[in-house]
Write the structure tokens for this entry.
Amino acid sequence: MNWRWGRVFLIVAALVGSFSGIRAEESIDLRLAKQYFEEAENLWKQDGGRVWGRPLNGPLLFVDRKARRMVANQADAEGRLRKEGSLFVGELPATLTVANTTIRWAGVRWIMVLWPLPKDTQDRRVLLMHESWHRIQDQLGFPPAGPINAHLDTLNGRYWLQLEWRALGKALAERGENRRAAVEDALLFRAYRHKLCKDAAKEERLLEMHEGLAEYTGVKLSGMSDTDQAAYVVKKLEERPQTMPTFVRSFAYLSGPAYGVLLDSQAADWRKTLKADADLAKTLAVRLPALEAKVLQDRAKRYEGEKLLAAEKERDRERQKLIAEYRARFVDGPVLVLPLQKLQVSFDPRSIQPLEGVGMVYPSLRIVDEWGTLTASKGAVITADFKKVYVTAPKEPKARPLRGEGWEIQLTPGWQVEPGERKGDFRARMGK
């Protein structure tokens, strides 16, 4: 789940903890790892490059997020891994972030997957194939992208997105005219959301062509039948919205496979002509009626729209309280500002909170940059242009490691902390 934004390289995944004292030899079950490597290999062989015209197999690395123990399916190019049976083991350097991603290390471009992998067979296979696609997406002509999609945390954005998902779920479960009608509903809800929310169409499309296509590939190559693929996506559409605090970075994991599976049922070879500037929903080529209020209201009733709207209004009231708290901490209160130059960051994409005019609040994250390593458990802000990160002001600016409320920084030698632009603020910079 990696993406680039200009000069910044971001690794997106669940928060990675620091070393916990677990012995590296005990952190990964090598027999289970071997089983998962073989599972991935079998799925790659079954595909044989047919889905995307290029095989997805490659160097695969499992990494324990706590002990940083890693196990690979092949040797690296610099001899850093040691052979243990048919596998290769070692420890990931502290300067690299642990995440589900693609990474270049020790002369090899790896598919990195967090250990432990999902116990559920379908979820695990989807994850393995999802990350395998990310490794070759540049070669396929689909560059990584990371738009903010802040509108998907607003009342209108969330409401119309969930109606779209509900309609997509119905479409996948139906056939014939019922499917056609449900697809039309989904696209109407989508079109109206894009009309209401500035830049929504552009930003959503970018993430769907990145994480959406990856998740679709995971489902497509998971070994499930066409019927089981549709049922799997319907189940996720029904269950996941209830467990996702925010949709801004995670919505494409649902929309992408839903549209992909529908496109499979419409034309088996649709991927052959797919371009980076495509919109998956528009690829369905459905002609829509005018976006009239009564039509939208009537369609929304088919999916319990009134009940959903009431729940979203209550959530939005709580969201406004949270935003006020974040503004008090990170906008009005004293902060430490750090420049972002060669950023590697891991975080949970399900929990980030847009802060209008500032950037995004990440409740928990880990950052590695030239100035050192930041681990935060009570919030940090990355600006919208990805040039700075803010945390609350440190308690003791000269202390090492540097600490504040819910965060700690291991500063790189030569870097120092000095007073910032406002009274009480601090900033980090390279010393003279």
DSSP finds eleven helices and 20 strands in the chain.
